[in-house]
Amino acid sequence: MTRTERITFESKAEQLVGTLYLPDGAGKWPALVTDGPLTSVKEQATGNHARAMAERGFVALAFDHRFFGESGGLPRQYESPPEKIEDRWDSISDARMARARASSSAAREVFRL
């Protein structure tokens, strides 16, 4: 069983939306960010992978890249590998900062930074 939390962060001035999957129980857990094929959104492959990793004791983030799903950016459905790489770096940077500025106690307690 896992818990989830909706999170937002910025990448190149656009708001990105993700789901943080948390293992059950208290403690500090290693964290990772999942990514999926081309136009996948967090409710598809990346969310399934993140859920599976949380069941195995990881904090896992699945997020929508810019231009897809709930995340911002125009044009919609624009596939840009270089911009996806930037989004990945920003998601990792956000995870590192989560402990300092997380709104929930759950996010503060789980990141090993």
Query: Main beta sheet, described?
Result: 4 strands, mixed
Which ranges are low-confidence, i.e. pLDDT below 50, for 5 or more consecutive residues? 99-103
General form? elongated
**Percent of residues in beta strands?**
15-25%
Q: Which series of helices and strands comes N to C?
A: EEEHEHH
Structural overview:
The chain is an alpha+beta fold. The chain has one domain: Rossmann fold, CATH 3.40.50. The protein has three helices and four strands. The protein has helices spanning about 45-55, 80-100, 105-110, and strands at about 1-10, 15-25, 30-35, 60-65. The protein is elongated.
Structure at a glance:
The protein has 113 residues and is of the alpha+beta class. The chain has 3 helices and 4 strands; from the N terminus they run βββαβαα.
Features:
4-stranded mixed sheet; alpha+beta; 3 helices; Rossmann fold; 113 residues; 34% helix
Give the topology.
Elements: E1 2-11, E2 14-23, E3 31-33, H1 45-55, E4 59-63, H2 81-101, H3 105-110
Parallel strand pairs: 3-4
Antiparallel strand pairs: 1-2, 2-4
